[in-house]
């Protein structure tokens, strides 16, 4: 089997990653995220008209009936309408809005959903989400440092941060809504990307121990080539189901599927280039991976 | 011999799989649309006669039904309907035929066969986003409860200092602390003694400033916590009682975190009504028993609530002394003589009103009314001939007790002369149920209409099917015979996942379905790892049997590492997430754990059955093998 010279392109990959990261961080700093209702608080009403809905008329009615600041958009089809009220409306206004719409329309306005989120809940959620991500990263780093070696932990966590930042950056740049399910998806990306990185790291470790007299670049290239088939196949099967979810899962799950698609796309790339690249930068060597003395030996006398 | 499992391993895989099939089976039976009939008080039993009246109404309307039953304790009746579209119509007919006093709720009755039910198999519960309903998140305003308690301390202290003849000014300062201002250090020391004796739970602090000697009292952290706990658990009990008024088939009232309560009501559309009932505050009234010679324009007659005194009644004055809003607590206890009593706490305003009203009425009796909201249903004919049910709310007021006032009452008093500790605790419970211990606010509300719920199920199932189909085709094309093993392992994974979720009573939500879809994608990963390892070993010149063996052996540690880290993330998601995110975390982690069994042991036993123990020239695993 021909060894593909992945690491030959590492300067290019570093530049590519740096550009993506800078763009993401820049956009996150300037545009921030388009926080969904779960985080900002406010009211959201989704209704279904039995005929195509006239958004301009609806906006007019809402303006005159005391729903200033209401955002009216169609949702999926031209019969489905999504109305968002900013924070400051009470929990009773969703029901009042529905009545207002029905009064103004001869046919039937069917309620699909009302969501009201108080401001305190949103703030807490943002805080919890951030903490969850940090805790996840921390624990994962510990686990890898314990199972592999510290340099691998740094590489894996750097790859994770890379993937999460770029996924968030994607949501910031496109202005797509960032709600609770998207947060769940970003956390799932952490799990997934990790999965990929570990499979590669596992093989790098194995080859460092197995292959003699080879330089680290060569060993990493061999490892990446050997695992390439698996990396691509697993990403492909996951991406297949995600595409099914994004296209057929309905509007409520769309953001979730898109976040995972972006995250997994980036995760596949990062497990090849970011983690391995960082290992080289940290000057990983055979000495880092000496096989520990077998169980039962005097562990105390071992120093890594 | 390579690649042959001992018999017990095959049997284990088979046993786990059939176990999964059995416990997943209840999900295949579609539930019947049904009506559930309950009395609106626990005394109202459902008997054959009542059921007969309900069935008569359905017969008359030409609505087909079957399998009507009454539960063993005679609390609920269930009628299954043939046609789901007629459920609402049937509900209207039956509630009209039965009249007020009964709650007729829409329900989905499981059709799990008896033998499955007997072994504890049940279908998964559907989340609100899949079947429609309302989700409320309420926040208990514990700060308000604490403030009320501090007011009580201030008033009690004022009175105690007056009695002890310690002069000083006691107020509630803007930080919510008790503040006492005194002219000398001795006075303050006396006051400190009094407060410390009467309210040991207060933490006292002394400050000198100019001519004034101050003392500050704040609740200790432990007392605050205790009060917080009390307020939240009190609200939970009250909300449970109120939710029952709504007549929902499986209501969920659950505490979440420090001071939040989640209420989930399936099938409810009228959220305004639900909120009104959940959020209502006052439903106790304290009134004096009317004098015998009082004119009838000034008095009202009320019946006793308890069954032992059914029919007995008292005349009460029309003036209300205080309502339940002023009651901050009630506990059953014993007096000095060991007789059961009930201790009642009022807030400061309530205490003032109570002392004003009772000062000049010692030896008269005071009645405590318990108020419940009930409905009269009227039927109005519309212009087009259809009938609309109009619900007219009214308050049913019944007398809990009418004790004699022994002395002027304040913010804290007791009701004595109760017959038994049981009676005392029942009275305390009713008093507490009448008053929310702390105000509640709605901080989150989500309503999902039934059509959106049905659509979410349809779309969810469809995306699982399509995603699954694509993965199956890919695996078969790419890995040939080994692909068949992987696909069978995947199918087993799904069956076991559904079985596990049904068994632990997990609720299936839309993010949960997304978790299943993601599991499908990731569950094949373990097999992909193994198979690509086998291909590699074959390429390196290993014999087919050796390659299979080595592929499985060597991939296992990688699979473990990869899955454990994903599991870490899933557990964190579960720990911090709420509602929908939790659902996703549960399916994801179950899926991962199960995939380790099915993808490693499950697929291995199939491969072993196909290739094990014979001479094999070439493996059907796709890819170049030379």
Automatic annotation (TrEMBL), chain A:
Matches recorded under InterPro entries: SecD/SecF_arch_bac (IPR022813), SecD/SecF_bac (IPR022645), SecD/SecF_CS (IPR022646), SecD_SecF_C (IPR048634), SecD_SecF_C_bact (IPR055344), SecF_bac (IPR005665)
Molecular function terms, GO-annotated: protein-transporting ATPase activity
Residues annotated as domain Protein export membrane protein SecD/SecF C-terminal: 99-283
Pfam families the record matches: Sec_GG (PF07549), SecD_SecF_C (PF02355)
Principal subcellular localisation of the protein: membrane
Coiled coil: none
GO cellular component terms, semicolon-separated: plasma membrane
Compartmental location: Cell membrane
HAMAP family: SecF_B
Name of the molecule in the record: Protein-export membrane protein SecF
The species this protein was found in: Mangrovimicrobium sediminis
TrEMBL record, chain B:
Domain Protein export membrane protein SecD/SecF C-terminal: 441-607
Subcellular localization(s) per the UniProt record: Cell membrane
Location of the Protein translocase subunit SecDF P1 domain: 232-290
Keyword entries, A-Z: Cell membrane, Membrane, Protein transport, Translocation, Transmembrane, Transmembrane helix, Transport
Gene Ontology molecular-function annotations: protein-transporting ATPase activity
Domain SecD export protein N-terminal TM: 2-106
InterPro entries cross-referenced by the UniProt entry: Acrflvin-R (IPR001036), SecD (IPR005791), SecD-TM (IPR027398), SecD/SecF_arch_bac (IPR022813), SecD/SecF_CS (IPR022646), SecD_1st (IPR048631), SecD_SecF_C (IPR048634), SecD_SecF_C_bact (IPR055344)
An example Gene Ontology CC term for this record: plasma membrane
Gene Ontology annotations of biological process type: intracellular protein transmembrane transport; protein targeting; protein transport by the Sec complex
Keyword Membrane attached: yes
Keyword check for Zinc: no
Chain segments annotated as transmembrane: 459-479, 486-506, 512-534, 555-576, 588-611
Every SecDF P1 head subdomain domain range: 310-438
Annotated membrane topology: Multi-pass membrane protein
Family: Belongs to the SecD/SecF family. SecD subfamily.
Function of the protein: Part of the Sec protein translocase complex. Interacts with the SecYEG preprotein conducting channel. SecDF uses the proton motive force (PMF) to complete protein translocation after the ATP-dependent function of SecA.
Oligomer status and interactors: Forms a complex with SecF. Part of the essential Sec protein translocation apparatus which comprises SecA, SecYEG and auxiliary proteins SecDF-YajC and YidC.
Name listed for the protein in its UniProt record: Protein translocase subunit SecD
Source organism: Mangrovimicrobium sediminis
Lineage: Bacteria, Pseudomonadati, Pseudomonadota, Gammaproteobacteria, Cellvibrionales
């Amino acid at each position: 089997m021909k060894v593909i010279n992945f690491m030959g392109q590492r300067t290019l990959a570093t530049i590519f990653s740096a550009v993506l990261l800078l763009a993401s961080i820049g956009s996150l700093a300037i545009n921030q995220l388009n926080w969904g209702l779960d985080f900002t608080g406010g009211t959201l009403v989704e209704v279904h008209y039995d005929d195509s809905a006239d958004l301009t008329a609806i906006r007019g009615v809402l303006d005159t009936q005391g729903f200033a600041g209401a955002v009216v958009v169609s949702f999926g089809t031209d019969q489905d309408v999504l109305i968002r009220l900013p924070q400051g409306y009470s929990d009773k206004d969703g029901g009042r809005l529905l009545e207002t719409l029905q009064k103004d329309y001869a046919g039937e306005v069917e309620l699909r959903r009302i969501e009201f989120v108080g401001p305190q809940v949103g703030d807490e959620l943002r805080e919890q989400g951030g903490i969850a991500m940090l805790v996840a990263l921390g624990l994962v780093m510990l686990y890898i440092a314990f199972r592999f070696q510290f340099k691998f932990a740094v590489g894996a966590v750097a790859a994770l941060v890379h993937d999460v930042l770029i996924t968030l950056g994607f949501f910031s740049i496109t202005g797509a809504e960032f709600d609770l399910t998207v947060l769940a998806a970003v956390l799932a990306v952490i799990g997934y990307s990790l999965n990929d990185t570990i499979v590669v790291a596992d093989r790098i470790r194995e080859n460092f121990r197995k292959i003699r007299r080879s330089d680290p670049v060569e060993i990493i290239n061999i490892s990446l080539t050997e695992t390439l088939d698996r990396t691509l196949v697993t990403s492909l099967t996951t991406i297949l189901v995600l595409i099914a979810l994004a296209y057929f899962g309905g509007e409520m799950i769309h953001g979730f599927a898109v976040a995972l698609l972006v995250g997994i796309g980036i995760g596949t790339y990062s497990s090849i280039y970011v983690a391995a690249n960082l290992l080289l930068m940290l000057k990983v060597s055979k000495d880092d991976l000496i096989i520990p003395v077998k169980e039962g030996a005097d562990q105390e006398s071992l120093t890594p | 011999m390579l690649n042959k499992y001992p018999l017990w391993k095959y049997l284990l895989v088979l046993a786990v799989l059939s176990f999964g099939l059995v416990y997943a089976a209840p999900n295949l039976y579609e539930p019947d649309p049904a009506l559930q009939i309950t009395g609106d008080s626990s005394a109202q039993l459902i008997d054959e006669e009542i059921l007969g009246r309900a069935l008569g109404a359905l017969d008359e309307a030409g609505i087909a039904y079957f399998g009507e039953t009454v539960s063993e304790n005679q609390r609920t009746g269930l009628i299954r309907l043939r046609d789901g579209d007629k459920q609402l119509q049937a509900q209207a007919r039956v509630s009209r035929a039965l009249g007020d006093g009964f709650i007729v709720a829409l329900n989905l009755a499981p059709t799990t066969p008896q033998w499955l039910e007997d072994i504890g198999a049940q279908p998964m519960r559907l989340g609100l986003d899949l079947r429609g309903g309302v989700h409320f998140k309420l926040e208990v305003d514990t700060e308000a409860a604490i403030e009320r308690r501090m007011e009580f301390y201030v008033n009690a202290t004022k009175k105690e200092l007056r009695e002890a003849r310690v002069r000083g000014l006691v107020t509630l300062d803007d930080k919510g602390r008790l503040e006492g201002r005194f002219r000398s250090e001795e006075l303050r020391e006396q006051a400190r003694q009094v407060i410390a004796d009467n309210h040991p739970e207060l933490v006292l602090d002394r400050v000198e400033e100019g001519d004034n000697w101050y003392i500050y009292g704040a609740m200790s952290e432990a007392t605050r916590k205790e009060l917080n706990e009390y307020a939240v658990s009190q609200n939970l009990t009250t909300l449970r009682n109120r939710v029952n008024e709504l007549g929902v088939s499986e209501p969920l009232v659950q505490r979440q975190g420090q001071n939040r309560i989640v209420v989930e009501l399936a099938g409810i559309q009228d959220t305004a009504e639900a909120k009104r009932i959940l959020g209502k505050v006052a439903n106790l009234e304290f009134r004096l028993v009317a004098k015998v010679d009082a004119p009838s324009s000034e008095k009202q007659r009320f019946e006793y609530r308890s069954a032992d005194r059914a029919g007995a009644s008292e005349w009460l004055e029309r003036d209300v002394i205080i309502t339940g809003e002023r009651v901050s607590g009630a506990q059953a206890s014993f007096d000095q003589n060991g007789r059961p009593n009930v201790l009642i706490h009022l807030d400061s305003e309530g205490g003032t009103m109570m002392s004003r009203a009772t000062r000049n009425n010692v030896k008269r009796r005071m009645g405590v009314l318990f108020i419940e909201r009930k409905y009269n249903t009227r039927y109005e004919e519309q212009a087009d001939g259809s009938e609309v049910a109009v619900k007219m709310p009214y308050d049913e007021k019944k007398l809990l007790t009418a004790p004699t006032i022994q002395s002027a009452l304040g913010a804290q008093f007791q009701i004595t002369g109760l017959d038994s500790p049981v009676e005392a605790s029942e009275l305390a419970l009713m008093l507490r149920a009448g008053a929310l211990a702390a105000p509640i606010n709605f901080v989150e509300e989500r309503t999902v209409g039934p059509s959106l719920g049905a659509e979410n199920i349809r779309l969810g199932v469809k995306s699982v099917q399509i995603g699954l189909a694509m993965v199956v085709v890919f695996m078969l094309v790419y890995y040939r015979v080994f692909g068949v093993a992987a696909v069978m392992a995947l199918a087993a994974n799904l069956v076991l996942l559904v079985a596990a979720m049904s068994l632990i009573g997990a609720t299936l939500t839309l993010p949960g379905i997304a978790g299943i879809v993601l599991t499908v994608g990731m569950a094949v990963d373990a097999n992909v790892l193994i198979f690509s390892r086998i291909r590699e070993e074959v390429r390196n010149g290993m014999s087919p049997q050796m390659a299979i063996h080595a592929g499985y052996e060597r991939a296992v540690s990688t699979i473990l590492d990869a899955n454990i880290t994903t599991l870490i993330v899933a557990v964190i998601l579960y720990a911090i997430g709420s509602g929908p995110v939790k659902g996703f975390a549960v399916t994801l982690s179950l899926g991962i754990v199960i995939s380790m069994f099915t993808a490693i042991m499950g697929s291995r036993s199939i491969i072993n059955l196909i290739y094990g123990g014979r001479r094999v020239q070439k493996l059907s695993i796709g890819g170049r093998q030379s």
